[in-house]
Amino acid sequence: MIVIIDNGHGVNTAGKCSPDKRLYEWKWAREVAQLIEDKLKAHGIKAVRIVTEDTDISLKERCQRVNALCAQHGTSNCVLVSVHINAAGADGQWHNATGWSGWVDPNASSNSKRFAQLLYAEAEKAKLQGNRSVPPYKYWVGNFAIVRDTKCPAVLTENLFQDNKAEVDYLLSAEGKATIAKLHVEGILNYIKSTGK
Ligand SMILES: [Zn+2]
Q1: For the domain that residue 160 is a member of, what is the CATH number?
Q2: How far is the CA of 83 from the centre of ligand 1 (A)?
Q3: How many Cβ atoms from other residues are within 10 Å of residue 156's Cβ?
């Protein structure tokens, strides 16, 4: 199995930040993606980040990079996670929404859905459910290119909210980063186990 990690936006997506500009989604996602890669490698798992540049790489290009790896290693040997931070508004204000969510495509495979559920179980263990209602199947469904246009099982994670003050403090803390990296690693390890590979 090869774990493909996408860290979403780049430095050019300036608007994706906390109202006080302490937290930038692109920067945080790169840091946490690197932690996830390092921890997976420490478990002897093959892991690769598809965007090592700081700049924005188009969704089309990111999907092509994922699908090239699927062609190289076999789609059933690949799994993709795309790391993000949610936002409740785009108005530069603080909001109250909190919590973790994992998103799959409307036409997602059963593997993608199971992967999202296994990630959610780890978020729950870390007490990151938040204050919004959780779908009964414990995954969220959305039309995101990175999970729609890629061939392997894929989940987009929204790791808490960049416009919630307490969550921004948590996301910027060493504990927050380590906890969120760990929930991805545990969810990925459990997913790999569940495939029998
Ligand atoms: Zn994002």
Answers
A1: 3.40.630.40
A2: 7
A3: 24
Residue 6 belongs to what domain range?
2-195
pLDDT digits (tens), the chain, 197 positions = 999 999 999 999 878 999 999 999 999 999 999 999 999 999 999 999 999 999 999 999 999 999 999 999 999 999 999 999 999 998 999 999 999 999 999 999 999 999 999 999 999 999 999 999 999 999 999 999 999 999 999 999 999 999 999 999 999 999 999 999 999 999 999 999 999 88
Question: What's the CA-to-centroid distance between 13 and ligand 1, angstroms?
Answer: 9
Q: What angle separates helix 25-42 from helix 174-195, to the nearest 10 degrees? A: 50
Q: How many domains does the chain have?
A: 1
Rounded to the nearest whole angstrom, what is the distance from the C-alpha of residue 8 to the centroid of ligand 1? Answer: 6
Cα 197 to ligand 1 centroid, rounded to whole Å: 30
Report how far ligand 1's centroid is from the alpha carbon of 190 (Å).
Answer: 25
Give the environment of ion ligand 1: residues with CB less than 5 A. 8, 84
